[in-house]
Amino acid sequence: MEVKTKYRFAFTLCLLLFLTGVSVGLAAAQASQAAEAGVGMTDRVWIALATAATMIGSAWAASWAIVATGVAAAGATAEKPEVSGRVLIFVALAEAIAIYGLLIAFMLWTKI
To answer: How confident is the model at residue 78 (pLDDT cuts 50, 70, 90)?
Structure first.
C-alpha cells in the first residue's frame, strides 16, 4: 500500500472516530437528560447512533472497495496503459459508496 493511501486511510479513520465520538457523546447526553426526566432512550438517541453507524459502515465499505479496485486498476494499467481511463471509473464508483453514506447520515442527522 502506498504511503499516501495509508495517510488518507488513517485520516479518514480518525475523522470517523471523531464524528462517532461526537454522535455518541450527544446521544449519551440526551439519554442522561431523558433518564432524569423519566423517559427511556428517545428517538434522537437512536437517530444519532444510526448516523454514526452509517458513517462508519459506508466509509469502511468504500475504503475496502477502493483498495480492491485500486490494486486491480494499477495492475491493469501497468500491463496495458490504454485502459487507465476505463479502470478509473471503477475506483470512482467505489468512492460513491462513501458519498452515499455521507448523504444518508446528513439526512438522518437533520431529522433530529
So the answer is: very high
